[in-house]
Amino acid sequence: MLHRPPLPSTCPRLFVHLLPDGYRSTSDVDANIGRGIGQPVKSPDEGFRIYDGQHYQLGEHFYQRALNYRCRTLDPADADLFFVPAFSHVSNGWTKVKKRMVADNMSTASRDDALFTRLRSVRSRSGESVLEARGGADHVLLSTRDGLPQDGAPFWELDYADSRLGAATRLAISEFRSVWHAEWPSSSVGRAAADQYQSVPYNAVVHADTHMRLVPWQHLPTRRRDSPLVAYTAGSRRIGEAALLRAALKRSCINGRPWCDTRAPEAQGAGLGEQDFSGISALYYAATYCLQPIGDTISRKGMVDALLLGCIPVLFHPGQLQQWGWFWGAWVTNATVLFNMTEVISGAVDVVQQLRGIAPARVAAMRETISRRAHAFQWSSTESLVVAAALRSNAHDYGAAESSAGITQKHIATRVAGLKAVAAALEAEGDAFDVTMRAAWELSLRQATQQRGHRVQRLSRLFERIPHAAMGVCETPTQVRRANCDRDDMGMWPLALNTNPARWAHPLANPGGVSNLVTSRDCVRACEDCTRCRYVSYSLAKRTCAWFAHCPAPGELKTDVGSLLHRSFTRAGWDERGAPQTWPWHEAKTFKTISVPKQNQSAARSTRARGALGGTVNTPFTRRQDA
């Protein structure tokens, strides 16, 4: 193992678990959508860049920051924290089909899937699994979405609520605390989401990078402000308090012109993800206040965008103040304005008029707070110390100029001082990534956290029933979806897990030809009706049921195929190759390869076995009689 020299006590040693790329879904349906921090677009000032990063694209950037973290260690025995790089920007929980599948299978999910096999294989010097050594308290996982129930299982074998993770720190871009949960007007947020996640800031339009010559969140004398005084950019909502609030704000803004200006989030005819980043950034950069109404969730990316562009966020729900506590919990009330949402909706309060009446001294104090604190709210484009060194160099080069585009020496000195101040802050406190690492480390060191993790993991082991299984898949699943069951050796059927299911030719399709396959039991049923099908591989992540006529021995299975590793097991014992003949039903959260015997199929469909914990459960090929 590579050992690094001792690191400062403020810098936790981070070990990044080695997982295949398929555990990180970072692409999107539109190739033009920015990845990670995105690509630079037109900025309101040439001194800093604006990026087109999307709401839910933080994952890849977070992963790259972890890989290049100055305090990363390659030896798990030396680590203070462990990052599990498994995330997806896509919510897998919206469709009715997914809900049916979860109801059918989640309670009997396999406890022996590829992800936890990998995590448990990483050992400390004492030989103990690092996942269980401290009750999981030193493990960090990132959901790049809001932390809603439908975001909780980005892959079929990963559920952020899995008790095997113990007291791991789960990160999301929003959080729903039970202390104010009852005040949240949306019924879509169940209490299961409360208290599970620690929130981290959105992937904003501003990132400190090595090109920065002007700090956009700092108030400078040359910066034109109050034109307009109030900025409002938000789409419409059809129902609920969010719709009523946005309608009230729009009326206030229209009636308050020229003090208020509005801009649509997307240009007319824009495609998916094509927000008007340049236009919105220019509006925020010129304004003093930026209105941030609730929407699908309490938090908004605009809250972070506004802060990092030096615009005072105007909030309308107490839960907005409780987002991102690690990052602005100590100063949020000194940098934001909060209105009572009910009073705004009723018309008792005109937001624009109220903002016009705020004393200049309070405005100056809020701007000063943002100038000093916002550096910890942004994700630097690369390692924060690298950016800090570049900012110092940029300050030196910029300060050496006698003039710059007509800017006086006094104003140049102010910009230089701002760059140096941010460089010093990044060196001392770091950016959002550094804050996250230190806060997660502090949580992991608490004895109560570790004890809670051990208690949860002990309970999870009581319910683990690990079958004899083999890792891998028979062959690379073919992309030919209309393979001939009478002559081909393999084929693939899609699962009905999206709004536009692929069409296929199996009799299980409805009269319109749309797939009805959802669970792995459906996959096995299709195989039983396919002449040459002997083995099947089911995958929620790939949304497919692949079938094969032949399969090698378990030790010769392919393990590098698809987005996730495959779990292979069989009721038939892999043709006398040593596996047990029967065990209770286990629904794996990934591809799993199952042998489907062609003889005595009726018996296979009716056989029932008694589980290890008592009670009756289904064998791998049983159709549930009580479903």
Can you describe what's shown?
By secondary structure, the protein is an alpha/beta fold. It folds into three domains: 14-203 and 436-462, no CATH class; 206-378, Rossmann fold, CATH 3.40.50; 470-618, no CATH class.
Order of strands in the sheet with the most strands?
15-19-20-17-18-16
Q: Let me know the number of strands.
A: 22
Number of domains: 3
Model regions low in confidence, pLDDT < 50 over at least 5 residues? 1-8, 28-34, 93-112, 178-182, 184-194, 465-470, 498-514, 560-592, 599-627
Mean pLDDT: 74
Helical/strand content category: alpha/beta
Which strand-content bin applies to the residues? 5-15%
Helix content: 25-40%
Shape: globular
Q: What value does the Rg take, in angstroms?
A: 27 Å
Through-space gap between termini: 51 Å
Break the fold down into its secondary structure elements and pairings:
Blueprint: E1 14-16, E2 24-25, E3 40-41, E4 50-51, H1 58-67, E5 81-84, E6 87-88, H2 96-105, H3 114-121, H4 130-133, E7 139-142, E8 169-172, E9 198-199, E10 230-232, H5 240-255, E11 260-262, H6 277-286, E12 289-291, H7 301-308, E13 312-315, H8 318-321, H9 325-328, E14 337-338, H10 341-346, H11 351-356, H12 360-373, H13 384-399, H14 409-428, H15 432-445, H16 447-462, E15 470-471, E16 490-494, H17 520-528, E17 535-539, E18 544-548, E19 566-568, H18 573-576, E20 591-595, H19 601-606, E21 608-610, E22 616-618
Parallel strand pairs: 1-5, 2-6, 5-7, 7-8, 8-9, 10-11, 10-12, 12-13, 13-14, 19-20
Antiparallel strand pairs: 3-4, 15-19, 16-18, 17-18, 17-20, 21-22
Helix pairs in contact: 13-14
